[in-house]
Please model this.
Amino acid sequence: MAVPIEPHFVDSNHDALYAESVNNPDRFWGTLARKRLRWIKDFDTVKDCDLKLGKISWFLGGKLNVSDNCLDRQVEQHPDRVAFIWEKDKTGDHETITYKQMLEMTCQVANTFKQYGVVKGDRVAVYMPMTPLLAAVMLACARIGAVHSVVFAGFSAEALKSRILDASCKIVVTADQGIRGGKAIELKKTVDSAVAGCDCVKNVFVMHRTGVQVPWVDGRDVHLEEAMKQQPTTCPVEPLDSEDPLFMLYTSGSTGKPKGLVHTQAGYLLYAGMTIEHVFDYRPGDVFACVADIGWITGHTYVVYGPLGIGATCVLFESTPVYPDAGRYWEMVDRLKITQFYTAPTALRLLIKCGNEHVTPYNRDTLRVLGCVGEPLNWTAWKWYHSTVGSDKCTVVDTWFQTETGGIAITPRPSSDHSTPKPGFPMSPFFGVEPVLYSKEGELLKGNDITGHLCINEPMPGMARTIYGDHQRFIDTYYKPHPGVYFTGDGAYRDADGHYQITGRVDDVINAKGHRLGTAEVESAMNKDHRIAESAVVGYPHEIFGEGVFAFLILKDGVKDDEKVIFEDLEKLVRKWIAAFAVPNVFLIVPGLPKTRSGKIMRRILRKVAASEYDQLGDVSTLANPSIVEEIKAKHMLLTSKEQ
Ligand code: WTA
Model:
């Protein structure tokens, strides 16, 4: 008899359901899509994919609206349920926003956008602080079929500008200032310099976060809240095709140009909701806290669409883990009675250093599931999370996913009653996910206790559909390296029990301070300095950041400037072109770089040097200039001996 498609959190049927999800995805996801989403028109085809063409489609022929699913449908059932607890930067100063209030706010934003000529398919750049209005702006776009492109409000004007231009955004939504860790962040000023020269931008909408006077361009700039006040609190939803774009989100890849990954409507929303329930055991009445910034995929999926799609109550966190002190998270858990907490390993490692006296004074008895994402959760951090924060009573879920997968794809499954998480292991695939490992040479690696390139056999409903404006790059990056499967860019180890551990990126991407960063982006920013002949950036193990950013530099002949001055100028360049988080932790001037005869930099060698693993440099004989390795090594040894 066919297994009933009714997953419960603790489910003795879990294995059978998982098998069904990968063997019969049409039945599995088709049933859930009809049960869990509200459709304006039912779909007729569950799935139509052709991976060689990078074609992924789910729920074809169906029409729905994500904002209707996240708001109207919820309001009909529980208008006064709290959607967001907005935990403002200033501690103790939280505000609650009900589903009804969110719906009204969203409708007013949607009507405002419509009044200014935003129509279905238009791209909307969003550069805002962590406020409920940011979520309302996203949902307003979803309501009218506009495509939001949220840019993390820590990115520079140049980075914002390139993203606005790449997507030809019609409007930009920002705030006078942001506020984080007690410090004001000049969002409007940054937008002003970004938008100068962007002919596509017709209007800049400005919300008021701090209320300071900011420069104003008459005719272009609009006070968002004032415009909203003129608008009705209802707005019809636009019926959208399942595969119409919902949003785009830029992320780093191996080249200097970030890619705008496009997610669509039904599959993304279904997958987001399924993962939040089944990874975090979300139950009615719980208070879910994902402290990631909405500027990243974790915030899109686990602050906005996932929680609202299932009618959850979610904390929207504006501050930092150490403001006003390192007890911020746990004081908040105590005050708001948080049941699930989701953060990044880098934050945990920072807090471990600050001492347990910031944890123990607060009551954490409400916590049931503690989650982490973004980089490997090392054993020490896992243990601290489990024992000190969770008092050995909570489930720790080290979840793996990517901007590309849309939602959690590999994770300990508290929903299956027999998998005890192993520290450092995201463990097992979620429903519908079939991980496979390939050798570098493209051979499928069968069996256990083996390491290879992590790929996914069949696309889940939440997968990205394309790179905005460059479908060929989408195919080349994800579906060509190992034909017929999705290539994640990560390496993974499958242990003797078949559980997965992520071994790190196998491409030129690093995960520094919880942020994904392309080494080529940092290099191209630094190469703008007239004294730099060449640069090579690699990641290296860093106690708190997970990976630090290490820059090897070659100066042009005859440059005599003081090293310190050069490094400061390079730092400024990286801040100007990317963001403060991308600034290298270490700069090292070297006489040359290890290159193959065809001129390719052997980053493997640089990574080993940066990690002080001199005995693991491997074979250097194929280099065009093998002797350079000893010279770089000597320079690095000198640097580290100076630091000690
Ligand atoms: C890394 C973040 C180890 C990985 C949601 C991936 C992880 C990249 C984990 C995606 C984990 C994410 N263990 N590494 N649990 N989770 N990563 O797109 O390298 O910002 O490819 O999405 O983060 O980063 P992105």
